[in-house]
Fold this sequence. Notes:
This protein is an alpha/beta fold. Helices cover 43% and strands 19% of the residues. The strands form 4 sheets. The chain has a 6-stranded parallel sheet, sandwiched between helices. 46% of the residues are buried.
Amino acid sequence: MRRFDWSSLDAAGRREALARPARRNDATVADGVRAIFDDVRAGGGAAVADWGLKLDGAAPRRIAITEQAVSEARASLPPAATRALRIAAENIRIFHEATRPEDSAWVETRPGVRSRIAWRPVGSAGLYVPGGTAPLFSSLLMLAIPAGVAGGGRRAAVTPPAKDGEPHPARIVAAGEAGLDALWLIGGAQAIAALTFGAIFDDGEIEPVAKLFGPGNAWVAEAKKQAAALPGGPAVDMPAGPSELLVIADRDADAVVAAADLLSQAEHDPDAQVLLVSESRGLIDAVLEEVELQLETLPRADIARAALAEGRAIRVNSITEACDVSNLYGPEHLAIQTLDADQWVPRITAAGAVFVGPNAAEALGDYASGPSHVLPTDGAARTMGGVTTASFMTSMSVQSVTTAGAAALAPVAAQLARMEGLEAHARAADLRSGR
């Protein structure tokens, strides 16, 4: 991890200290995604299959999530594993049911003029579940369950095939817990292209979706960006690329815990980024030493080391300044490991998820505490939040006006319309005022 002293940096130095890995904006990634999109737009399912064979080593497959398939998958897992999946699914469902938006009450702005906000589910959702080097069945729960709670229509879930071409049984169980009827084994930008343009295969069809969801590597993040930029293309949940974690730790923090949390994100992906921000040089030294010690026994140490090369250890003058640094960065995950950690939460204005105190391990949020772990990356947390039930819904205003209300309000609207030079608007209002 690179070390910085915040107080000694000028504006350019501070931008460098908080810079994301350069590969996330690699022009070759954008060009590669564009080529895949062009092929799939022209060739449909055949092009998706060609890219799947080339990049994943396997053609797309539809896995039906039947009672028998789920039962067989459960039987192949230890009881503790299926119990953990069930508890995680229950917690996710409880949280998202409790936070599902409801239609607002009517608001009467003038006598006879009433409005309210009404919520409706989106018609279809494409759920990208990352895989590759790890079977992230947790992301399947974190996407498919809130989508189901929202009450929308079609859910199309895609995930990269494993090296042996077979889905991990935990993915089948997770899909069953989420109430999905199928899981498509397709990964990368070609999966996003299939969800965007639609694709027909020998064993089924993926229809175009209204909105794309899910985290992924730089290729998936770029594919979502390009899909959203197409005329009539799908909406997207947020920029959700390689994982990020910023840890604010004071001099009394546990270096072992802080190091473990940093490594928990570094092992995701070589393009992941972790930051440690502290007012204590001693704490930074201890954490970095502990990171090296824990790396020695990590099965994914090579991936973690690659990510740590883009990691940052930033010394600040105070925890107040640490919060300011965090807000500038806008991390996907923020862990506050300080005395009286609660007191710093009001100062945080930009984070996908905040984990307060030493017991709130980011890993708990990754799997089982309830809120979705699909969160904004690349600084997008400065303007948007993570996936919630509301992400799978849209709101609209509903307005109701009585004859008396129209008579009172129409002259106001007509006056304003004529001030803007919009006579047709004014005449439409006049008709409601009895003129």
